[in-house]
Amino acid sequence: MAPVPVQVADSAVSSPFPQSPKTTGPPVDQTNFLSDRARTTEIDGIRGLLPLETPDVVSFLAGKPNPATFPFGSITLNLKPSISGRPAESITLDGADLDHALQYGPSAGLTSLRNWLTALQERVHKRTPGNWTVSLGSGSQDLMTKCFSAVLNPGDPILVETPVYSGVLPALRLLNADMIEVDVDDQGLSATRLAEILDSWPADKKKPRVIYSTPVGCNPSGCSASPQRKLDVLQVMQKHNLLMMEDDPYYYLTTPLIPSYFELETQVFPNAGHVVRFDSFSKLLSGGMRLGYATGPKEILHAIDVNTAGANLHTSALTQGIAGSLLQHWGQDGFLAHSEAVSAFYKERRDVFEAAAHKYLDGLATWVSPVAGMFLWIDMSPAGITDSYSLIRTEALAKGVLAVPGQSFYPSNRKSPHVRVSFSIIDLETKAPEGFARLAEAIKDKRKE
Ligand code: PMP
């Protein structure tokens, strides 16, 4: 299964942005995107030497604990019958794989898993080997936090689509980042709005070099960008020399897959190197594993690895070992078949959930039906609601229903007529209809005010 171009919404409209021919070129040096601190910080003396340890070298380097003292003899994973139709089966982690999983390892992640993921990215995103690499993190959240500090100086501007995944706000606030809100439309990040902001940027103000977006099944808006929309955004990025942080944890939750920014950048940038992609295993294998991977220019990934070395040495090698043995066992085709089954699972849930929402909210609210992700972003302005926060804290709470007020997804904390509701895990038969009935009552009560 390979990604195929799809029209996600009504994006077949002709693009106002000129299209460049597909180009390839020599590797580029993307250190110009690094923060001052990232340019001057290196992995410490011990970790910096670890890659030089080869079987021919006598190494007195590391303070690795002696595995003879570890209690684990082997680890057997008992897999239940999978949603892609595989029978129950067992995989045992032992030998060299277990040794690597139990020992301190490289900051970028276990070599075998990185190689597996590199081959996956080459296939799925149609990228040839080049000046890009893959690093593991404790969830994509961990990698994004480290990337923000690798590319932003304190106080720097960064363009963020709004509403934005609220999980990135604490890291950006810690950096005192100047978050420039770029409002989404029904395809997420708007190239037109982005161009307007950048074309009229004041000459005396530091210009943003980085943009953050969740292009598929956006959390919270549920929108997805079509390939054409991504090309339009890439054109604006080219004009203004931007780096994209592509946060794509829902990428595999739609079928067919939508070509990513990481794939499409090769059509716009002669040397690519303008997209750092963040993938997550949370929605495909387990959220509690805390495993994600970043893919992008070597210079930026190295700066992320330096941050990992300083913060936590590396992502749990045991978790990587477990995921790696499962992925080796499945192979790429097995992984893609699993992802497709997960996507079908959520699509079925979305359909039932949305039917319940229509039953109770039609006439009071609207939303864009999501092709991926786990959320409906419900706009209650047709009912005259302007501040969902006060609705949730008073009328909705009184009726016994909770949803996330839109305000939480704006760096400026602006009032919003939206609420985010999730269909990932809620009981669809009874709880979802009951919740929507209560929300409708709450909206009507608010209207009476
Ligand atoms: N980005 C988005 C848009 C998300 O919704 C989430 C999880 N809710 C994350 C990143 C974090 O993913 P992970 O579990 O891989 O850290």
TrEMBL record:
Cofactor requirements of the protein: pyridoxal 5'-phosphate
Compositionally biased tracts (Polar residues): 12-32
UniProt GO molecular function: pyridoxal phosphate binding; transaminase activity
Annotated stretches, region: Disordered: 1-32
CDD domains linked: AAT_like
Domain Aminotransferase class I/classII large intervals: 101-423
Example GO BP: alpha-amino acid metabolic process
Domain of life: Eukaryota
UniProt entry keywords in alphabetical sequence: Aminotransferase, Pyridoxal phosphate, Transferase
Family: Belongs to the class-I pyridoxal-phosphate-dependent aminotransferase family.
Protein name: Aminotransferase class I/classII large domain-containing protein
Organism name: Apiotrichum porosum
Lineage of source species: Eukaryota, Fungi, Dikarya, Basidiomycota, Agaricomycotina
